[in-house]
Design goal:
Layout (H helix, E strand, L loop, with lengths): L1 E6 L4 H11 L3 E10 L2 E9 L6 H14 L2 E5 L4 H9 L5 E8 L4 H13 L3 E7 L15 E8 L5 H15 L2 E6 L9 E4 L10 H9 L2 H12 L5 H11 L7 H7 L7 H10 L3 E9 H11 L3 E10 L2 E7 L5 H15 L6 E5 L5 H6 L2 E5 L3 H6 L2 E3 L7 H4 L10
Parallel strand pairs: 9-10, 9-13, 10-11, 13-14, 14-15
Antiparallel strand pairs: 1-3, 1-4, 2-3, 5-7, 5-8, 6-7, 11-12
């Protein structure tokens, strides 16, 4: 094992590998990382029996002196090497840490939870860009990705630990199997209200109708799962009867787009992902967002209008949680992809069916009951944090 550390510089790997090449060395494994211009390079190499080992090592040490770096050599036995080879094929996982600023306390608690489960950290990398200390912002984002290997003692217990850490330290932790599907998602489906937009449209309509407090109370109960969605929806719609349609345009134009939504959609579109709104809200506003954000599909409730006023009802079936899950599967079949290649993002109890159906279900700034039930969640950052779950780095993301 050859370990190199010191100031990073152009041509470092080339100069060292040339010395190894002259000795006909075989490279069995190699890894390198650079942090703050300090390089750490490791090479597991096999030395031919005919090689002049002493001369090769002397030349490596001389080159290290010339380039002001440190080189260490560690012999590896055949037994140790074979044990290392046998580790191939073991379960691999990807753990994503999200926060405005990742702290040592975050890493300490998360890495302890991982090690307690018998998992070994194989690799650590930063997905977010470098941040100047002279331009600190409330909207800063930090993401670190860990590759893990092993078999967890209890996935349920590990998930509980991550939920506890997340709640106590204001950090998001996503734990995924490192499969081919993680790197090959193709369809992303979003709830609309309180996910793509920072508002509940039906509450905005209610304010315009003068029944804001009544509708908001019903909405909150529905999102927390205390009232059946369809029943709560009918109750709220009935209170909107007689509202003039002229208010729809002004409400649509004032809808606050969620932090990171535009960056997320621009990137997904650039890389060929299909996107959809699956909403228990209204398609009038869904189509407005479709044009604004470049979304491919919209499925939502159709407001019934007569004589320029809302009737207090919708046309057709109500889009509830069960229908969202069916639409997700329908779109996957339509696009010719596996359900494992789908992503669903939502915040309410009526989103849980599609979150559990999708290959990757993400509760976004969700109610407690939803966050506890979903496999993954984002609470600390904007909607573009979804991209880090897919392994995107900042330099690959379109602004």
């Amino acid at each position: 094992m050859l370990k190199v550390s010191g100031q990073d510089q152009v041509g470092l790997t080339a100069s060292l590998s040339q010395i190894l090449a002259d000795a006909n060395v075989t490279v069995l494994d190699i890894g390198q990382s650079v942090i703050h211009d300090q390089v750490s390079l490791g090479m597991l190499v096999q030395l031919p029996e005919t090689a002049d080992h002493a001369t090769m090592l002397k030349e490596l040490l001389f080159q290290a002196h010339e380039q002001d770096i440190q080189v260490r050599f560690t012999p590896v036995s055949d037994e140790a090497y074979e044990h290392w080879v046998q580790q191939q094929g073991k379960d691999r996982f990807v753990l994503t840490i999200l926060a405005r600023r990742v702290t040592a306390e975050h890493l300490a608690h998360i890495s302890r939870a991982v090690s307690d489960q018998g998992l070994n950290i194989q690799d650590i990398s930063r997905l977010t860009g470098r941040v100047s200390q002279n331009a600190v912002s409330a909207n800063d984002k930090a993401c670190i990705e860990l590759t893990l290997q092993g078999k967890p003692k209890s996935l349920e217990q590990l998930r509980k630990q991550f939920l506890q850490i997340s709640a106590e330290l204001n950090v998001d932790v996503a734990f995924q199997v490192d499969s081919v599907y993680r790197r090959n998602r193709r369809l992303v489906c979003f709830d609309m209200d309180s996910t793509l937009i920072e508002a509940e449209v039906i509450d905005e309509l209610a304010k315009a109708a003068g029944v804001g407090e009544q509708v908001a109370a019903i909405t909150e109960s529905a999102m927390q799962g205390k009232i059946d969605f369809q029943e709560s929806f009918r109750q709220r719609m009935a209170l909107l009867k007689g509202l003039d349609v002229s208010v729809l345009d002004s409400i649509a134009e004032a809808l606050p787009i969620t932090e990171g939504a535009e960056r997320l959609m621009t990137t997904l579109r650039a890389y060929g992902y299909k996107t959809a709104i699956l909403s228990g809200g209204f398609n009038y506003f869904g189509h407005y967002l479709q044009k604004k954000l470049g979304i491919d599909f919209v499925f939502a409730n159709h407001l019934d209008i007569k004589d320029g006023k809302l009737t207090g009802e919708v046309c057709g079936d109500i889009v509830d949680g069960a229908m969202k899950a069916r639409l997700l599967k329908q779109l996957a079949e339509q696009e010719g992809i596996r359900i494992e290649q789908t992503i669903a993002v939502g915040d309410g109890a009526n989103d849980l069916p599609m979150l559990s159906e999708a290959g990757l279900g993400i509760a976004f700034r969700a109610k407690p009951i939803v966050k506890e039930s979903a496999r993954h969640s984002i609470s600390t950052l904007g909607l573009d944090a979804v991209l880090y779950f897919l392994g995107f780095r900042d330099q690959e993301i379109h602004s």
